[in-house]
Design brief:
Helix 1 (about 10-20) packs across helix 8 (about 215-230) and helix 3 packs parallel to helix 5. By secondary structure, this protein is an alpha/beta fold. The chain has helices spanning about 10-20, 35-45, 90-95, 100-110, 145-160, 180-185, 185-195, 215-230, 245-260, 275-280, 290-295, 305-310, and strands at about 1-5, 25-30, 50-55, 75, 115, 130, 165-170, 170, 200-205, 210-215, 235-240, 240, 260-265, 285. Strands 3-2-1-4-5-7-11 form a seven-stranded parallel sheet, sandwiched between helices. The radius of gyration is 20 Å and the shape is globular.
Amino acid sequence: MRILLTGATGYVGSALLPRLAASGHEVLALVRCDSACEGKARLRQDTDSGVEVLVGDICEPEWGVAEVPPFDVLIHAAASTKLARRPGGAVRAANFRALAPIPEIVRRGGARRVVHVSTAFVVPERDGVLREALPGPGTGSNPYESSKTAGERWLNARLDVPLEVVRPGIILPSVNDRALAARSPLGPFLHAWARIGGERLALAAKANVRLGLVTLEGTADFLCTRVDSPARHRAFWNLAERAPWTLGDLAAHLVQTRGLGVELNERRAHPLLETWSPYLMAERCWENDGARSAVPSAFAAVSLEDFAAMIVPEAVPA
């Protein structure tokens, strides 16, 4: 099949692209650049790898694409993952307004399906459970959550072709790949940890909270299967698994193994980490029976030791 992939140079897209090419698909990679040659360099793909660059920008009208080449499936992985609580014009532009051209691009390209990468942190039901179904209207705790929720609802209402929405949780890179970790949604969190250094760390968090996690490899593998799966008119997949450990367990582990003072409280957080507070205070649950049944290998438990190694790789000097 011929796949149009947005976000091809991003965190998820860069892991998905080689998998699609290795599976024998032709990939049209939408890349924000001045030329196809520059785009190819950014993708770090050989010219004979089955990957073609389509110069464009999702924040431009019609994504900046004058002529839409034929393609079979659109995988929309481009997004902004900034979690700032202040009004997020750029976040909404990337996650919601950039969806407006999709129905026309799909029509012009003759595509048969859209796979949209959303998030496991769209607005859940009142009982705190996010089901594998269309989310209700809601504002979320920040512009990221709100724009992703609105985006799912808009695509569901506007697309005539089958739509599959894939919702990863907190996507974790390889334990040993610190460069990749810096590009992940955990990047700002990691940067904050590094700046805090040996200070006593205050986290606005509840000790019994379990984070919703998924690996980058599992996310890319799951998305790759959506290309060849039997088409359903609408499908929503939750790629999030509650960690087998709590934030209280994590805090104790960091004290014991990293020499880092960690204080969990429900009132205040270190200023560099306050944007993460909604995810450290809320006990969320995800229905994931459909996704787990479709691709069991996408769900790999993340150990406490591995997660600690991602956020604080070494002992903090006293």
